[in-house]
Automatic annotation (TrEMBL):
Keyword tags: Hydrolase, Serine esterase, Signal
UniProt keyword Hydrolase, yes or no: yes
Keyword Nucleotide-binding: no
Limits of the 4-O-methyl-glucuronoyl methylesterase-like domain: 105-345
UniProt source species: Algoriphagus marincola HL-49
Lineage: Bacteria, Pseudomonadati, Bacteroidota, Cytophagia, Cytophagales
Descriptive protein name: 4-O-methyl-glucuronoyl methylesterase-like domain-containing protein
Signal peptide: 1-23
Alphabetized Pfam families for the sequence: GCE_fung
Single annotated GO MF: carboxylic ester hydrolase activity
């Protein structure tokens, strides 16, 4: 009985706060607060940034550091050794068209070590080198052990279009769980990160996994790592964007319905908010992000600055009309406003001349693109099909 009471005392406040926050979810555009976004082009010291040099040497590092300290936490870059153990599997689902490499990526740092599993499919017909698409997978593996869910990771369709494709599961670097997330690279490689208010958390750990996958691609003769695409859906979309801000080797970053803490502007407070996401997923973001629970106005940055960090490399977002929780308009606006770095600093044409309300179909240039489709939250074949048109154009294939 006593334990029950204790449990109640612990959980009741959590339940009440999350209930309160949920009852305040706003889906009414007329109730969105007026947007006061921090400027991408004015430095912390008030200097106007108008050259590539000032952007790359001063303002970009400032914004990067803000995301690192206030939102996602660090992605540690150091380790002592990385090695790859490759097992080519003879029999698998896509045997007739693809080779499957099951790769154990082994990382050593000091006394610590960790092994992450990466699955790589390569077209069988010739030797490449092939452009590659990496999907960060946070979904439960199918019961037969296969990681290729229909639509979500359309291996056959990607192979048939001449891409190699790879995926790793979140579990292999940091489990997607409020307490178990430490049972991966956090404990095995970077234990000191656990103590920091801007330390590595699960989203950053998944990003780290993508960066290690890139280490494998770069030394692979059959892979053209300069034509590499990083894809994440929803929570993995948030991780993909942060990974690409940390690692300039990705040619294209595609965040599908990544919503709050990903593509969508936090200060709009439309759909999922910082307070809701931090209360439900305590293991995703840096401790510091909690300062902005129900205090979005005090955030010194917003998500329009995230694609700006990836510039001039290509960025693609997608939304779904019924996915209001992720705030489709906020996702589009984030990219539209962030695209100013592409156009002003890098002279890359922005395709986002149209207001979100007036979009008639997918919009894209060679470096930026967006689509919104009918239907619910999910990464489905329709999304891939539209995205692949952009990817081919952007990579020149
Ligand atoms: C939701 C979460 C979103 C999004 C989504 C997903 O529950 O609130 O931020 O990440 O999960 O990953 O599918």
């Amino acid at each position: 009985m006593q334990t029950r009471l204790k449990l109640l005392a612990v959980f009741l406040p959590i339940l009440l706060t999350s209930k309160m926050a949920l009852s305040q979810v706003n889906y009414d555009e007329s109730k969105v607060p007026p947007l006061h976004l921090p400027s991408i082009f004015i430095s912390e010291k008030g200097k106007v940034i108008d050259s590539k040099e000032d952007w790359e040497n001063h303002r970009r590092p400032e914004i990067f550091r803000l995301f690192e300290s206030e939102v996602y936490g660090q992605i540690p870059k150091d380790f002592d050794q990385v090695s790859f153990e490759v097992n080519e599997r003879a029999n698998h689902e896509f045997n007739s068209i693809a080779k499957l490499e099951e790769v154990d990526i082994k990382i050593r740092r000091g006394e610590g070590s960790h092994v992450m599993r990466l699955n790589v499919f390569l077209p069988k017909e010739s030797n490449g080198p092939y452009p590659i698409i990496l999907l960060i997978n946070h979904r439960a593996p199918e019961e037969d052990g296969s990681l290729a869910e229909e639509g979500y990771w359309p291996v056959a369709e990607l192979i048939e279009r001449g891409f190699a494709t790879a995926s790793f599961h979140a579990e292999t670097v940091a489990p997607d769980d409020t307490t178990r997330y430490v049972n991966g690279i956090l404990t095995n490689l970077y234990p000191e990160q656990k103590e920091k208010s801007d330390g590595l958390k699960a989203l950053g750990a998944w990003g780290w996994g993508a960066i290690r996958a890139m280490d494998y691609f770069e030394q692979h003769e059959g892979i053209n790592a300069s034509k590499s695409v990083l894809v994440g859906h929803s929570r993995s979309g948030k991780a993909a964007l942060w990974a690409s801000a940390n690692d300039p080797r990705w040619a294209i970053t595609y965040a599908n319905e990544s919503g709050c803490g990903g593509a969508a502007l936090s200060k709009r407070k439309f759909g999922e908010t910082i307070e809701i996401i931090n209360n439900r997923f305590t293991h995703w973001f840096a401790e510091n992000f909690r300062k902005y629970n129900d205090a979005e106005e005090s955030l010194p940055l917003d998500q329009h600055m995230l694609p700006a960090l990836i510039a001039p490399r290509a960025v693609y977002y997608a939304s779904a009309k019924a996915d209001e929780w992720a705030d489709p308009k906020g996702e589009y606006l984030g990219l539209q406003i962030g695209s100013e770095v592409f156009s002003w600093i890098y002279a890359k044409e922005s395709p986002f001349k149209t207001n979100w309300e007036e979009l008639k179909g997918p919009v894209s240039s060679n470096t930026l693109g967006y689509h919104i489709r009918e239907g619910e939250h999910g990464l489905i074949w329709e999304d891939w099909e539209i995205f692949l048109e952009f990817a081919k154009k952007s990579l020149g294939i």
